[in-house]
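ok trying again, last paste got cut off:
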Amino acid sequence: VENLQVTDAPTQSEVKNLQVTDAPTPAPVTDKPATQEPTLLAPVVPVVAIQSEGPTVPTAAVPEVALPACPPAWDTSKTTYEAGEYIEVQSHIFQCHALYVEYCNIAEWDESLLETNPNAKFMWDDAWTHIEPCTITATQGDE
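nice, full thing came through this time. structure:
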């Protein structure tokens, strides 16, 4: 075993000089508003590099994609939503999660739900799954 080096263990004074620091304090958790409204994640915007010098490179036109028509708007008073049912919130489509149907029909969070199910808050938060943006038609806007 060549090039093996043996080092001395730290001395008592070196060990005493070690400092232990506190772990960082986690940020406080904020509560959601009392009324559940399916939430949107910020859209991802592609970054386009702009060439400042030299010849211009022709680019293909990006075809416009027609958004689907929106389903009926979310009704906070409705308590009969079913698994797979679609709703519209802020021009986005959401679908009631099959495992959390009970929570699709509860518009406002109530701490007492935790008494029957310790996972109720998670289920209530995830009851609606974001599908995609949509277009509100003229008849939907009049409702």
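cool. Helices lie at 12-16, 101-104, 113-116, 120-125, 138-141. Strands lie at 86-89, 92-96, 128-133.
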